[in-house]
Amino acid sequence: MNFNLKSYMQRVEYVEVKERGKMKAQGKAIKYGDNVDTDVIIPARYLNTSDPNELAKHCMEDIDTEFVSKVQKGDIMVAGKNFGCGSSREHAPIAIKESGISCVIAETFARIFYRNAINIGLPIIECPEAAKDISDGDIVSIDFDTGKIVNVTKNKEYTGVPFPEFMQEIIASDGLIGYIKKQIGNKEA
């Protein structure tokens, strides 16, 4: 199957964008440990397609065979250190986003994964305290303007690094391509 950018750009955004610069997310935590690499996020045997829906069907299957059946639209992935290490494939954040995950919280991210996630419009936030304390199944809410993360289940708050407004605009545009299209459209108007 070939990747269809237009179809991908029209997908429903799971992060609620109330108005420009006002991003929030809330969902159930699905938790993983340290060094979750791109090969377990989306195994190499599925890289013969760029179809986001097909990639989502195999997301996390080598580390969590139940992920695809338990993930719900809006859930939040939580992980330890060095999330997204390994190869530089954009397939990994695409698979996560398309599976329904609204945000990934981790102690740290591999830098290339961080850039790829923003480029395809997947919100991510670094917060070591939240990543360590949130348990699988906890209900978590995130305010991207302030970096405030609330573990609703445990009634605890954490402070992550808030997104700058331009990064929020990239994510709200469903990624860098959508953002650039908007910028070009604004200049032509």
Write a brief caption for the model.
The protein is of the alpha/beta class and 189 residues long.
Description:
By secondary structure, this protein is α/β, with parallel strands linked by helices. It is built from 9 helices and 8 strands. Helix 6 (111-120) links the parallel strand 4 and strand 5 (124-126). The termini are far apart. The relative contact order is 0.18. Mean pLDDT is 88; it is low at 1-14 and 16-20.
Q: What is the count of helical runs?
A: 9
Largest sheet: 8 strands, mixed
The percent of residues in helical segments reads 25-40%
Q: What fraction of the residues are assigned to beta strands by DSSP? A: 15-25%
Instruction: Give the overall form.
Output: globular
Q: What would the average pLDDT be, to the nearest integer?
A: 88
Distance between the termini: 36 Å
Low-pLDDT runs of 5+ residues are 1-14, 16-20
**From the helix content, strand content and strand pairing, which structural class follows?**
alpha/beta
SSE pattern, N- to C-terminal? HEEHHHEHEHEHEEEHH
Computed over alpha carbons, the radius of gyration is 16 Å
DSSP E strands, number: 8
Structural topology:
Blueprint: H1 5-9, E1 16-19, E2 22-31, H2 38-41, H3 52-56, H4 67-70, E3 76-79, H5 91-99, E4 103-106, H6 111-120, E5 124-126, H7 128-133, E6 139-143, E7 148-151, E8 156-159, H8 165-172, H9 176-188
Parallel strand pairs: 2-3, 3-4, 4-5
Antiparallel strand pairs: 1-2, 2-6, 6-7, 7-8
Helix pairs in contact: 8-9
